[in-house]
């Protein structure tokens, strides 16, 4: 992409003046300036947050790690069953919906 020279910038400025009018351009420039300041402030906060997390991670190994306690057989719990697949979940939901429809129909019949 070629660099923009003075003639191209003047043409762009002329098009902006024609589109928005000379009165609205200063307001637009102020709005863009405010947006850039807010953006810079937020990115600076993100960088500060990243710096503090890096410092915390580097300081963490300096502290002694707690000694792991031996696991007794009574404390071991069975691993939960794997989550059902999407198809299995859909089938279960359809069954629940059918049961709810049947109970709603039964209640409607009792009221009638």
From TrEMBL:
The keyword Ligase does not apply. Residues 88-98 have a biased composition (Basic and acidic residues). Pfam families: TatA_B_E. GO terms for cellular component: TAT protein transport complex. Its main location: membrane. HAMAP family: TatA_E. This is Sec-independent protein translocase protein TatA. The lineage of its organism: Bacteria, Bacillati, Actinomycetota, Actinomycetes, Streptosporangiales.
């Amino acid at each position: 992409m070629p660099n923009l020279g003075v003639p191209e910038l003047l043409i762009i400025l002329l098009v902006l003046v024609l589109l928005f009018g000379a009165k609205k351009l200063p307001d637009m420039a102020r709005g863009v300036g405010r947006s850039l300041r807010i953006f810079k402030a937020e990115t600076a906060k993100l960088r500060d947050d990243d710096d503090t997390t890096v410092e915390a991670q580097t300081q963490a190994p300096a502290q002694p790690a707690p000694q792991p306690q031996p696991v007794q057989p009574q404390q071991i719990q069975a691993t939960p069953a794997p989550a059902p697949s999407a198809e299995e979940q859909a089938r279960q939901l359809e069954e629940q919906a059918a049961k709810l429809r049947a109970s709603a129909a039964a209640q409607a019949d009792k009221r009638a």
